[in-house]
Amino acid sequence: MNYKSSLQILNLPEDSLILVVDDTTTNLEIVFNILTNFGFKVATENDGARAIKQAENRLPDLILLDVMMPGLDGFETCQRLKENLATCDIPVIFMTANSDTDSKVKGLNIGAVDYITKPFHEEELLARIKTHLQLRNLTKTLEKRVAERTAALSRVLKDLQESQLQLVQTEKMSALGQLVAGVAHEINNPVGFIHGNLGHASVYFQDMINLIDLYQQHYPNPVPEIQEEIAAIDLKYMLSDLPNLISSMKEGVQRIRNISTSLRTFSRADSDRKVYCNIHDGIDSTIMILKHRLKASEDRPEIQIIRDYDNFPDLECFIGQLNQVFMNLLANAIDALEESNIGRTYIEIEANPNQILIQTTLAENNNHILIRIKDNGVGMSADVQQKIFEYLFTTKPVGQGTGLGLSIARQIVVEKHEGTLEVNSALGKGSEFIIKLPITSLY
Ligand SMILES: Nc1ncnc2c1ncn2[C@@H]1O[C@H](COP(=O)(O)OP(=O)(O)OP(=O)(O)O)[C@@H](O)[C@H]1O
Ligand SMILES: [Mg+2]
Fold it and tell me: Which of 30, 66, 74, 234 could cross-link with 22 by S-S, CB 3.0 to 4.6 Å?
């Protein structure tokens, strides 16, 4: 037979525990019998101090408390229970003499939920206890639900912030990517034909030089007008300088072609799945794009970039997104170096130059690579380090920083590539960011 206990019928937990505190043993016995017969678990104590200890050790669901007791009386006991974080939520019901109105009021004032008068009426005692246990149970359920809802809402908020970040990142990337790809494309065509024609031009010039040589061999004494022209244009120097001119033009064009290739590598449209890419090409193309910020100025020499690249295979990744991480970390390093230059003269900076070290290594397990980007700029306090990956956290003035760079970087490394992004820094000593990435994607 499916038998339901009295407690189940009332929707109360089977192990509901009631602590009864009274210095009169007879009272304890009466209440103990009534409650255990009903199905409650009951603990008893005959003084206030012990009751508090007992309540702390094993939290009861309800306390029945006698008012008049030697030592700690009921009021004092109740007050201490209410002051203690662990026990303050346990409902307390006072047991008072029927005529004692003052005690009833005082008890309710110091936090008791109800009172029961002596001598006890079984029905009344049970009715009040049931009501307060049910109330307590409902409150607990409600608190649990509120906590669950709050957690769910916080999760939704976090998801929302992350998708906002993703949107910003995609927008930033696609706007920048499109611009860069467009510029690279526009440069590429004219540079392409200068490069092609320079080849022909150098052959033509060589032919012409040969022809002039031939003329000079066969007609060593031309008419005076030609001799004057040869002297005026300094033909000898011109002929010796022309090859240099052509080769420096070739060199210049080659540099523009490299820049244009870097721009295209950097802005390479990301496919929707990861592909195997050379990380070092990504870093180099990012440095090329930031070149204008590294160049020497009136106030400081060039920022030195020290590359220390290890040998490892291509990485399965979204290279466009990783380039954005390198871009954010390098831009931050340059900002930190600029900040450290404030108040230092050119000579002082030259003696202790601005440096960014970019080091890549294969991690011991051979499944991961480490990329360290280390600057000797202003560094960060422990307090700032705690917050740098937070959405919108910035220490830069309005207009100079949005506080998105590192949270985007963290998201790309951790969520998109199952990697880690860590920082080591000390105020005045510089900062080091360490990216750890798996060589082969897990997903
Ligand atoms: N290399 C670094 N050296 C010192 N402080 C740094 C460095 N990198 C980041 N920080 C600190 O972390 C903060 C957050 O960096 P984050 O890149 O997220 O935002 P931001 O650079 O301020 O703005 P932006 O959105 O333009 O990147 C910076 O404001 C700065 O205080
Ligand atoms: Mg930044």
Answer: 66
User: In this predicted model, what pLDDT tens digit does every residue of 385-399 receive, in sequence order?
Assistant: 999 998 889 999 887
| Closest ligand (CA of 392) | 1
pLDDT tens digits, 266-284? 776 555 678 899 999 999 9
**Which ligand 1 atom sits closest to the C-alpha of 433?**
1
Distance 388 CA to ligand 1 centre (A): 7
Q: Which residues contact 288 (CB under 8 A, 6 or more apart)?
A: 258, 259, 262, 263, 266
Q: What is the mean pLDDT of residues 69-75?
A: 92
Q: Are strands 430-438 and 420-426 parallel, antiparallel or unpaired?
A: antiparallel
Q: Which atom of ligand 1 is nearest to the CA of 395?
A: 29
DSSP letters along 313-382, please? Answer: --EEE-HHHHHHHHHHHHHHHHHHHHHHHTT--HHHHHHS--EEEEEEEE-TTSSEEEEEEEE-SS---H
Q: Which ligand is nearest to the CA of 403?
A: 1
CA distance 108 to 435: 61
Could you tell me how far CA 356 lies from the centroid of its own chain? Answer: 23
pLDDT in tens, 213-238: 999 999 999 999 999 999 999 999 99
The protein residue with its alpha carbon nearest to ligand 1, atom 19, reads: 403
Q: Which atom of ligand 1 is nearest to the CA of 378?
A: 4
Among 332, 373, 431, residue to substitute to test ligand 1 (most atoms within 8 Å of Cβ): 332
Over residues 399-428, the pLDDT tens digits come to 788 888 898 899 899 988 999 999 999 999
Is the link from the previous residue into 222 a cis peptide, with omega within 30 of 0? no
Domains of the chain, with CATH numbers?
6-120 (3.40.50.2300), 157-269 (no CATH), 272-443 (3.30.565.10)
